[in-house]
């Protein structure tokens, strides 16, 4: 299956069940938390490589990696997560205003209420991968657009702010604001987004100064091409 293919309903359920299974740690992300986490990574200030963000999906501790039955199972689950991420990336690239956060929904006093707390917690975890890099938006005119995510996702908020989230109806309105605000948050970072820092791997072994010069002259490297390289520095 190609990575650009969105998850089918069956695959979504399969990933959901794995994250909730006993083979995942108690701290593993749920689907709504994972969706918020991936959203922050997708639209944030820096490109973050999967090798860094994937480990956090399983829990805070590096030892929380799932108990895989086989390498094939690991490949399959990771593939599902990567496709889940690509759904987020593609939606923001093609139609950001159509992006729908994966919020929970439950009934309250006969009304359907959105619960964005787990999603926002995931988003906050994604921000914590590069906390300093997010500072520009907090210092910009768009800071108010980030506030609902802060109120529902931060580990701690001020006591005076609790009244803004102490009722399901209030939390529902914050969830609606978040969905409306995300396209503008994404747009803010587009011109500022930094590429990931990559390490360039040396394809050929390094030549020691006392090794034979690879040019075939029969001289020591330091007295042949190495001497020329030193002269150029």
Automatic annotation (TrEMBL):
<dbReference type="Pfam" id="PF03695">
    <property type="entry name" value="UPF0149"/>
</dbReference>
<protein>
    <submittedName>
        <fullName>UPF0149 family protein</fullName>
    </submittedName>
</protein>
<dbReference type="InterPro" id="IPR004027">
    <property type="entry name" value="SEC_C_motif"/>
</dbReference>
<dbReference type="InterPro" id="IPR011978">
    <property type="entry name" value="YgfB-like"/>
</dbReference>
<dbReference type="InterPro" id="IPR036255">
    <property type="entry name" value="YgfB-like_sf"/>
</dbReference>
<dbReference type="Pfam" id="PF02810">
    <property type="entry name" value="SEC-C"/>
</dbReference>
């Amino acid at each position: 299956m190609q990575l650009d293919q969105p998850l089918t309903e069956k695959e979504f359920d399969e990933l959901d069940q794995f994250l909730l299974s006993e083979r995942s740690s108690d701290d593993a992300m749920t689907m709504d938390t994972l969706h918020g986490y991936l959203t922050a990574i997708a639209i944030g200030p820096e490109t973050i490589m999967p090798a860094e963000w994937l480990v956090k999906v399983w829990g805070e501790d590096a030892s929380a990696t799932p108990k895989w039955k086989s390498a094939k199972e690991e490949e399959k689950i990771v593939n599902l997560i990567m496709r889940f991420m690509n759904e987020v990336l593609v939606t923001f690239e093609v139609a950001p205003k159509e992006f729908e956060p994966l919020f929970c929904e439950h009934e309250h006093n006969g009304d359907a209420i959105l619960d964005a707390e787990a999603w926002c917690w995931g988003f906050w975890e994604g921000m914590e991968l590069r906390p300093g890099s997010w500072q520009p938006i907090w210092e910009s005119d768009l800071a108010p657009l980030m506030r609902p995510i802060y109120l529902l996702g931060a580990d701690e908020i001020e006591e005076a702010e609790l009244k803004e989230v102490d009722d399901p109806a209030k939390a529902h309105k914050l969830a609606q604001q978040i969905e409306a605000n995300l396209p503008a948050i994404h747009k803010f970072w587009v011109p500022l987004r930094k590429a990931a820092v990559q390490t360039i791997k040396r394809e050929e072994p390094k030549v020691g100064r006392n090794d034979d010069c690879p040019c075939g002259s029969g001289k020591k490297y330091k007295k042949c091409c190495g001497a020329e390289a030193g002269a150029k520095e």
